[in-house]
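[Q] Does anyone have a clean structure-token version of this?
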Amino acid sequence: MNERLVATKSPAKNPTRAEHAASMSAYIAAGEKLAAKTGNRGPVRLDGNGNLHPEILAAFRDKGFYVFEGVIDAQELDVLRAEANNMIERAPVRKGAKVDARGRPALGLDHAREPYTFIKPLSDPWGGTKLLGGRHPSQMTQPVPDGDVPDEVPYLMRDMCQTMPAGLRLYGHPQLLAIAEAINGADFVPFNDAIFVKQPGLGGAVAWHQDGVTHWQSPNWDPGIHGFNFQVQLYPSTPANGLWVVPATHKLGRIDIKQRIADNGGDERLPDAIPLICAPGDVTIVNRQMLHGSFANTSADLRVSLTFGFHRRASVLGQGGALSVERGDVYDEQRIFERAAVIAVAIDARAQQFPDETPYHYQPFAGLEDDYRWNDETFERVIRDYSSKDLAI
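[A] Here you go.
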């Protein structure tokens, strides 16, 4: 019998945590085999000029994703984990609360935008809604969590460059920025950042979607026009808690996701999807037009993914607010420069921490480096509330 057909037998409508985990086992096993055949993973390889190896660039453009192995070393990973865990622990005890679970002032009270998104445990907050441009048209299975659980749990955390010094330094990582340049050109610009938190037995689903909303009807449309996202994995990313992608779908234009699921018998476990399996310190890169999503985390494993994206300048310049950005916002040269300044400060913050590492040279700020050194003044001028200038398309 075809293994993939067994894997896609429909789950119960409202399964328990254990039932959901069991219903995923055959699908996960099949996905692991398919992922191994697909490949598109390995260490970062740069040429003598610091450019991404053309074989990796070609593989990414063909399949729409790549898993870079072992990018973040153990020492840096430990600091990132500690700071991300502090963000989780300092979250408001519930949405709108002013204190954390220990009664301390919650982190983010002085931010221009609330840095936390909360959800009901194991829920899919966006699927089947009109939120975020309606790009999540079909809701994932929402299992029933075990026993006595919180009413709400952190789902997303924002402003890592403001709240995590190691997060700011990560934003200036020379290999990651070299990859961004290879894909989007030397004048690439930032998108946003968000930390996905998938706590064991609590973490929510992200319904199947394509990220971009702006350029689907553009006369200049091509598979890379909506940019890409990195995800830096702080813990193992498994098929049960991690991201799944449908390879090469970034080339297809806007996909009728509801119809694709209907054609699969109404089952969200799409047969041609693969999991992006990662060890701690691995970094995934995914084209934002790729069909991707993740299931409710009914496993026993924590996932924390530091996610940040980049665009071509031409894709952003002159566009207006989309997704979580106010509709009246316009991405003019000044807006782009001010948001991109975070990269310049991050590069210097990293250079101060890792003096033996060759810093990345960011072309849009060439000659302006002394104005964007990492210090108290640039924190207030550039980093504080930087996410209010995000560039979503």
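[Q] Thanks! Anything notable?
[A] The chain has one domain: 3-312.
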